Amino acid sequence: MTVRVLNKGLLTSIQDLGRYGLQKYGVIVSGAMDKYSLRVANILVGNKENEGALEITLLGTSLQFENDRVIAITGGDLFATIDGERVATWRPILVRKGSILQFKSPLKGCRAYVALAGGIAIPEVMGSKSTYLRAGIGGFNGRALQKDDVIESGVMNKFSTSLFNKLDKRNADFKWTVNYDALVNLQQTQTIRVIRGTEFNRFDEKSKRTFFNEPYTLTTQADRMGYRMEGPPLSLAEKFELLSEGVTHGTIQVPPNGQPIILMADRQTTGGYPKIGQIISADLPSLAQLQPTAKIHFKQISHEEAETELLKKEQIINEIKIGIRFKRL
Amino acid sequence: MNHFFTDAIIKPLGDSALIVQIGEGISPSIHQKVQALSVLVNNYPFDGFVESVPAFNNITIHYDPVVVYQTQMKNLVSNHFPLTPFQIVSSKVNELFQYIDETQNFAARLVEIPVLYGGEYGPDLDYVASYHKISAEEVIRIHTQCECLVYMIGFAPGFPFMGGMNEEIATPRRETPRLSITPGSVGIAGKQTGIYPLETPGGWQIIGRTPLDLFRPDLSPPTLLQAGDKIKFVQISPEEYNEYKERKQ
């Protein structure tokens, strides 16, 4: 036994980097909404980057530790406290037996990640620990965490064990923190970069301009499946029928009401609405940190720039990895 | 390039996927080409290939641009200018076209789907019958006659997008969708017929229910149906329905 859920909060689920290879059967990918924060949380405690961790949404989640355990909290700043004291995030910390970790309110961002050293001891379903909420599979019994659920942690590797021993011995936090600024943006008004979607040219001239010039607001209908946006309506130059076809994380669809929907981690595998744009992969984690009512400016960039941005972020993750390894020596 | 695929167009779906457009509209011959490419890309995956999703007339290829790029940099000859991940994947797909065997015919699996029609399991059967001014028995007869082709799976795990239903029983969707449809429900929406694998809201006219599980997460593959399958609906009695259900437990 390691962690007991005292309060489930708004939505707390176990997610890794997703369930791949089965979209042709209609099995959705799921996985963390903010993949960079999940990866860094795992790196910080010595786990594999794609290990499952807790994804905490906005507020209310409260967890009690039944053993000493090294953890890392990353992602949005949800006012995390341990036994009432503000706790350091974006660095490995040692939580003592009996302590209570609480997420009180979303100060910055929307989703926090808690990685346990040794990972989470739950079986993989179809190759992943991610929770597929609608089908009721994966994660913790296929569902969001509830009060009194007990999460078992896995066995720590050599790295995690040495971290544990070091933190145990010094009996104080490390002084360093990962600088996440260049990786994830936690601001609530954001410029999100977009490349043209496959049906961009099917929209009328006004819509094509409006989409990149006017801000759109994230509505309260924003969850792991998709973000419904509100703003100047977008319309097609002329009506046409689109057959269902593959979609992906960040695809921006426009249904007949003209209000764009951004497909997120729990999106369906295929969709039949015209796609005006596609959020670049490098900006998806920042998008995951927006709360309802946040404002988004969509900025058009080229496909090649999007690829460059993604490679740049990967370089930042690499630097973080090297930095952490260096600090442990 | 093989002339089988001279019409193919490759277009990006964001920076981590691309769509190979193989033709227009819905037809068994285009479906054959989609299947052929789908088999090839899965049999000869390139470094960074994640997965492929076939649709009516195109196939989406998901890839990891970071892996694609890093693989290139590892093997790059010093005086060569590096390509973008999209350029690399596009050229890999173009290479695959050359290996298409035009003479290959994909033998479709024929899957029989037992259905208990009408009653509480098919609450819209009578509506469909009265809409066409025929008897419920006639609707069942026509529905069990068709041999439907599964063009693709989408919307929910194991949900088949099928073609080939006799248009004599084509019926518009319900004006008010149901909030919850029981898994296994067999429905009609326009010219399409389909089966709901999970409990979801939906507007299809529900004419019956199959006792089979369409989504079986503990098996590989995790769905009863796959793109390329042929389906035949078979009418069963309430007793047979219960027998199927009992056998499963």
UniProtKB/TrEMBL annotation, chain A:
Positions of the Carboxyltransferase domain: 24-316
InterPro entries associated with the record: CT_A_B (IPR003778), Cyclophilin-like_dom_sf (IPR029000), PxpC (IPR052708)
Pfam families: CT_A_B (PF02626)
Alphabetical keyword list: ATP-binding, Hydrolase, Nucleotide-binding
Top-level taxonomic group: Bacteria
Record bears the keyword Cell cycle: no
PANTHER family per record: 5-OXOPROLINASE SUBUNIT C
Protein name, entry field: Biotin-dependent carboxyltransferase family protein
Species this protein is from: Cytobacillus citreus
Lineage: Bacteria, Bacillati, Bacillota, Bacilli, Bacillales
Automatic annotation (TrEMBL), chain B:
Membrane spanning residue stretches: none
The EC number(s) this enzyme carries: 3.5.2.9
Pfam families on file: CT_C_D
Domain Carboxyltransferase: 8-225
UniProt entry keywords in alphabetical sequence: ATP-binding, Hydrolase, Nucleotide-binding
Recorded GO MF terms: 5-oxoprolinase (ATP-hydrolyzing) activity
NCBIfam families: 5-oxoprolinase subunit PxpB
Protein name in the entry: 5-oxoprolinase subunit PxpB
UniProt organism field: Cytobacillus citreus
